[in-house]
Amino acid sequence: MIHPLRGMKDLTFEDGKLFVHIVTTAIKIAKRYGYSYIETPILEATALFKRSVGDSSDIVSKEMYRFEDKGGNDVCMRPEGTAGVVRAFVHAKLDRQPIKQKFYYYGPMFRYERPQKGRLREFHQFGCESFGEASVYEDFTIITMISQIFHELGIGFNLQINSLGCPTCMPPYKETLVNFLIEIKNDLCEDCNRRIETNPIRVLDCKNQICQSLLVNSTKLINNLCEGCDTDFKKLTKLLDNAGITYKVDTNLVRGLDYYNKTAFEFVSNKIGSQSAIAGGGRYDKLVEFLDGKPTPAVGFAIGIERIMELVQMPEASREGIYLGAMTEDAVEKLFPIATAKRKETKVTVEYNAKGFKSHMKGADKVNARYVVLIGEDELKSGRVWVKDLESKEEKTVKVEVF
Ligand code: HAM
After folding, report:
1. Beta-carbon neighbour count of residue 305 at 10 Å?
2. Is residue 70 part of a domain?
3. Domain tally for the chain?
4. 1 three-class SS
5. In a domain? residue 7
6. Ligand 1 center–CA 244 separation, angstroms
7. Which of 86, 183, 255, 310 lies 20 to 30 Å from 318, alpha-carbon distance?
8. Whose alpha carbon is nearest atom 31 of ligand 1?
9. Per-residue pLDDT tens over the stretch 303-319
10. What is the pLDDT of residues 275-305, one digit of tens each?
């Protein structure tokens, strides 16, 4: 038997239903906030992720499914959705249009990580990207939207927020941080030592306990923001307070992708083990420009679908549609015109084998049908069908025009 690859999963039956329930709920809410669908290729030029997610990030430096295609091109299976959406946005010249654009997407992402509970090599995200709105009101609106999606799906969460500043306040902060890190360099882990050179901000979210204890005394960017970033961050916290959305300011929250500035956030759940982030996002005002578009502020997020599948209960399915069955061989083909006619309005299950009454009733129950429609010898002669409503238990025979 051939198994799926390590860290990859089939979504069958119940999982498939749950997946569709999550995605349709998220789409319904995203549409209310003005988002429309965007689909971008799974395979992209490697350069796209190097330039956007960042060469020194773990995702790009260690985790990409990267190969040379038959034409000799350096390509990657997308590790995340934002870079492709921004590329598509620039490619379609939407950056030159005065209107604000908002897109949602869902689909598979690929990261060659060490698989564990909640961490897959192929996983699915539902994401949204909003272009052209610089106001912190949009950051607040996006956080509200995610809260609403989780609320509708019955998921509890903790929200962590931070500000990563902007080109005015980040560079001087980085300098102060690097000086601090050099002082404690010998006690920091190998990864942190490498990051001091490549991406010092990422040292802040090192998972190593010793590193974390050494970082307690580091200067925090949140206390060194420029006036504009500081005002926006305070506005965001006030808006969240007023909306009753509880959050924690996490000064070490830097996110694993390099394109963020200002607002960064993560939704976490304490019910799914160590891989607890169920959604993440933030503002990335420089990325469109970085990918050769006109300067366009942007903010977005992505939800990890497999992670929230652990938390979502499928709503009780109500009986739906019609089960059609024949009790004599001659009646089987009489079922098809009825099925075709009824499929214009509802779900229809056709049993191809002639069977006894009890067996059909069991079959109707299995597919959770609302109505059972049966044709036996008597019905064939009279040109009628026997119908039972499995909710009200009402039974009747009905004249059928189609035969
Ligand atoms: P991210 O934090 O890398 O952000 O991923 C978003 C979510 O995807 C995570 O919170 C997690 O739930 C899920 N996820 C990530 N890696 C895995 C994995 N290996 N297995 C299962 N689930 C996983 C981004 O990808 C950004 N593009 C989000 C964004 C959109 N920022 C702005 N716009």
Report:
1. 23
2. yes
3. 2
4. coil
5. no
6. 25
7. 310
8. 281
9. 999 999 999 999 988 99
10. 999 999 999 999 999 999 999 999 999 999 9
